[in-house]
Design goal:
With 489 residues, the chain is α/β, with parallel strands linked by helices. The chain has two domains: 3-221, Rossmann fold (3-Layer(aba) Sandwich), CATH 3.40.50.150; 310-487, Alpha-Beta Complex (Adenine-n6-DNA-methyltransferase TaqI, Chain A, domain 2), CATH 3.90.220. It has 16 helices and 22 strands. Strand 15 and strand 16 form a beta hairpin. Helix 12 (425-435) packs across helix 16 (479-487) and helix 15 (466-475) crosses helix 16. The longest helix has 18 residues, at 3-20. The radius of gyration is 26 Å and the shape is elongated. The two termini are 50 Å apart.
Length: 489
């Protein structure tokens, strides 16, 4: 790779950040890729010998051009005689001077490169809505490669972008997924794309249609994760857990997938090869970065054979948002008050109410409990915290709440129930043991890259049978010993 070219491009990246204003990066959705990450992505993109005489490269949302520079440099290294055609799409006029300078610098460094810079929205470029563009680009010639760091913002269902994508058969909840899906359609058969994005699309329920779309005629062939989410975009304060994914446009899933991890941007990289079956399970994507991760997925596949839809209970998010219900929350018991349960009411495997150390109002006023949709009827419920603190040993913290009265559950909890009513006591006890076990914790850490535990996540993970849950309850042991007793390992 041309280190001089990349060093100059890195300086332009910093200039572009300053031009936008670092305090405005959230608004502009411009989180430019640092040079070390750009090189890492280019090395993931180009791994094989290139035999064609012409290579077409797409960079949607090109920013200051650092990903294009890294990818072109790698292509030129592997195929020095190939002609390289670059299409860079960037709608933010503030960064166009830096992007133009980078593209000209690339051509000066590699004369075999030609480029087309399109100052337009990528969705307009990639769909049929191409009236603002040159006549030559109304029919887009497919690309061999795509490299991208797309914007991360949510996408409103009725926005112009969303409607454009739906016209192409693409349904996504987020801009970055839209970029990935649209770029995927622009690849040649066996074309390759590398994207750095949040990890949320791997398992989020909202992304199920997107995963189906991407894997209908494509596959994931490589994944790179970072130990430190703070250091990946250190100078832009991006704290989301980001992941680099290489996808191929193909009709056959690979036998193996390369999974690598680095301490921060691109330091101390370790890599391993895992079976495709360890990556894609029950419609979601896993990241088994270690042997321990692979073993966790394997154990779960063997021992938990039921989805939540096959069991006589489900999970929902607590219904009461405390700041929206201030007029109904009181600090002491009144005749028309029912318990209000927060995550802070959790103790070891149970819920304590009221809890003296909790300063929040722990009672919910209601005149007609049986008609109040915010409440649940008397019964046994298994609650989990939606947010796990750093000091907690487990991602999932579950506790049983049993009440002879109606109750209100805070929105920061999830609760397992049967048709809105309580669970059988033995099933509740077995489910609480299962959720609090190390086996489930190990699996969930591979399954989910964030500390939140949403109802959607709990709906996607596998569960034991009812008889196994009852058997767990009958052991009288703590979670890990109970699981070992029932499952034998």
């Amino acid at each position: 790779m041309s280190t001089d070219l990349l060093a100059r491009t890195e300086r332009r990246r910093i200039e572009a950040l300053d031009s936008i204003g670092r305090e405005k990066l959230d608004q502009s959705e411009q989180f430019f890729t640092p040079v070390e990450v750009a090189i890492l992505m280019a090395n993931m993109l180009i791994t094989d010998k290139i035999t064609s005489n012409t290579v077409r490269l797409l960079d949607p949302g090109a920013g200051s051009g650092i990903l294009t520079a890294a990818a072109v440099s790698k292509i030129a290294e592997v195929a020095p005689d190939a002609r390289i055609e670059v299409v860079a799409v960037e709608k933010d006029t503030i960064v166009l001077p830096q992007l133009t300078e980078t593209l000209e610098d690339i051509v000066a460094t590699y004369p075999q490169v030609t480029y087309k810079l399109l100052s337009t929205d990528f969705f307009s470029f990639g769909t049929d809505q191409l009236s603002p563009l040159d006549e030559d680009y109304r029919t887009i010639e497919p690309f061999d490669f795509c490299i991208q760091n797309p914007p991360y913002a949510k996408l409103a269902a009725k926005s112009a972008e969303s409607l454009q994508l739906k016209a192409e058969g693409i349904s996504v909840p987020n801009l970055y997924a839209g970029f990935m899906a649209l770029a995927h359609t622009l690849l040649k058969p066996n074309g390759r794309m590398v994207s750095i994005t949040p990890r949320s699309w791997y398992n989020g329920a909202y992304f199920s249609k997107f995963r189906d779309f991407m894997l209908n005629d494509g596959c994931v062939s490589a994944i790179h994760t970072f130990d430190s989410r703070r250091e990946v975009f250190a100078d832009t304060n991006v704290l989301q857990e980001t992941i680099i994914t290489r996808t191929n446009k193909c009709n056959v899933f690979p036998k193996t997938v390369t999974v690598s991890v680095s301490r921060s941007q691109a330091h101390d990289i370790s890599s391993r090869t895992v079976p495709w079956s360890s990556i894609f399970v029950s419609g979601v994507l896993f990241v088994p970065a270690t042997d321990k991760d692979s073993e966790a997925v394997k154990w779960m596949n063997i021992n938990a054979g039921y989805s939540l839809t096959e069991l006589p209970f489900t999970v929902s998010t607590g219904r009461v948002v405390d700041f929206r219900s201030r007029d109904k929350l009181v600090p002491q018991y009144f005749e028309d008050a029912v318990p209000m349960i927060y995550p802070a009411n959790f103790t070891t495997a149970s819920v304590m109410h009221p809890r003296q150390v909790l300063k929040k109002p722990q009672w919910y006023l209601t005149s007609h409990a049986e008609k109040d949709k915010m409440l649940v009827p008397p019964g046994n419920y298994v609650l989990t915290k939606r947010f796990s603190a750093k000091e907690e040993r487990r991602r999932i913290t579950a506790a049983i709440y049993s009440s002879a009265s109606y109750a209100a559950f805070d929105n920061k909890t999830n609760f397992f129930h049967t048709g809105g009513h309580g669970l059988d006591p033995e099933i509740a006890q077995g489910l609480e043991l299962w959720l609090n076990s190390k086996r489930v914790d190990n699996f969930f850490r591979v399954f989910s890259g964030h500390t939140q535990v949403n109802a959607g996540d709990l709906k996607l993970i596998p569960y034991p049978s009812i008889s196994q849950l009852v058997a767990l309850a009958h052991t009288g042991l703590d979670p890990d010993l109970a699981v070992k007793e029932v499952f034998g390992n």
